[in-house]
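#struct-help
A.M.: can someone run this one for me? Single chain, 583 residues.
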Amino acid sequence: MATSHTKKAPPGAPSTTALLTRYWISRDSLFGWLLLAMLVATTSVYLYSINEITDWQKIFFDAVGDRNAAALMPITLQGLLILAIFIPSSSFATYFQQWLQMEWRNWVTRDYMQRWLHSPAYHSMGQSSSLNRLSDNPDQRVAEDVSILVEKVVGLGIGLVKNLANIFIYGIKLWIISKVLVYYFFVGEPFTFRGLLIICTVLFVLFGSLIMEKLVKPMVGIDYQRQRHEADFRHSLFNIRDNAEQIAFYRGHQHEKRRALQHFSAIYRNWRELMRFSRRRTLTETVYMQAGNYYSYVFTLPSYFNNLISLGDVMQLNMACARLRSSLSWFVYNYEDLAIVRATLLRLREFEAQLSMPIESTFNYRPSTDGSLQLLDVQLNRPDGTPINHIDRLVIKKGQRCLLQGPSGGGKSTILRTLAQLWPYGSGTVRLPRQENMLFLPQKSYIAEGTLKDALIYPKLHTSLSDEEGAALLYRVGLSHYIHGLNTSADWSKQLSPGEQQRLAFARALFTRPDYLFLDEATSALDARAEWEMYTLVLDALPDVTLLSVAHHAALRSLHSMVVDLPSTHQDIDAYSASCQEA
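D.P.: on it. Structure tokens below:
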């Protein structure tokens, strides 16, 4: 099956350089630069000790070749001294590298969380259908892709610095000690060519790098798709876990199994492709490494057998050649990690593009000078442009209680989303008072992690609500049997029934005491008596509140001063003028 592995960043995505340097040019990067300096310093000491080990090996093997047992003890002590430098420098280099990775990730994560959850970016990502594939699994971008990118970039960057230093060190070392080499190639006279070993090493590495790039370049696109398929599969399993009871009631386990396995089948097919290219990479890398382990002996052994160099010289030359080849082979050995980085950068650039171009609302939002809510010549559309309904004029004066009723799909909830500035699809003028005095209670109440008191005061983070006040609020909304759990952390969205969650939402309204309260079928899970109790409780506690309700029960009309009956979308919506009547 032919698959396209080419993937480009969308328009508006930042460059790779801009994405990688955002932290390093920020005001918060001073400590990161300090950690980087410490990392470079310990890495330099580590490289120095590695170089000393290479020189020590020549001395050691010369003593072994000369059978000089008396010289072995001081040489061994010298080696132990070098190890005393090598071991801690290697340990601290790893320590500072990990610290730097976490500092960088901490900054990027906080930056993304701020930008992602800054309204309306996170909401538009969930609602946009046209940009859906750019913003799929934003949680994975923040949690996994940032971690992968930072870890790989720091590791590869330090590895690159090490290898560049090694290229310089061992290139000079080979240039110096290879001057005594004499080359024999089975025919002709022996000859000398200073630097021939270096040139052949460079050509060997270039050839291997070109082969590797040619054979396994599609791994970038394959890894990009792998992360997406894994996230989709994880999401389907999370959905089963989160809605297990509803699925069981519907006997929908076969459907859910089929859908989850469809996602896993995509992982399976992707993995087969990855296996194919991994086989190529492994085969190429193995041949390259094995050939590299022995080709240098072709250049050094002839001189050794002709007594031009010692055994220690052979070992030193081959060690230096191996380290030079290994350093020049950074691209070959790290191709898989580089492919992962390129795929991760592409995903994060898509995420950045989505963050930088939130969906612009086509409504004309203006402040309301008299505290009223006004929709003037408002056209409500779906994301694809299909019209939902048209409101010629709807004015809810401050202190009024308005009830929206009508058939499903007529735009009742969409009106509330428009007033909350969460629905960008449509046109017209919307006049609003100050938003900080508003509270929206949706049909499905959201309960964040934490204690029941945290759920009561949500979305506030800190408050002076006492246990007695919290208990009183729970008692008033009929949740007195949960008073003992006020300071208990639990998954309250699972502990409370849908009706109890809606009661808790009304307790939030009593605590918040908003000037404007919007109820979007906020009592749909309650029986008629409990619904009446919640409405009267709020209206008695907040006599001056401006109320806009979406509900179907006719009994609630008497609790509102104005009722708006929206027509079906099948009617002539362009000629529709909101029919309002005083209750």
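A.M.: thanks! The first strand starts at residue 363 and ends at 367.
D.P.: also worth noting: Confidence is low (pLDDT under 50) at residues 128-132, 570-579.
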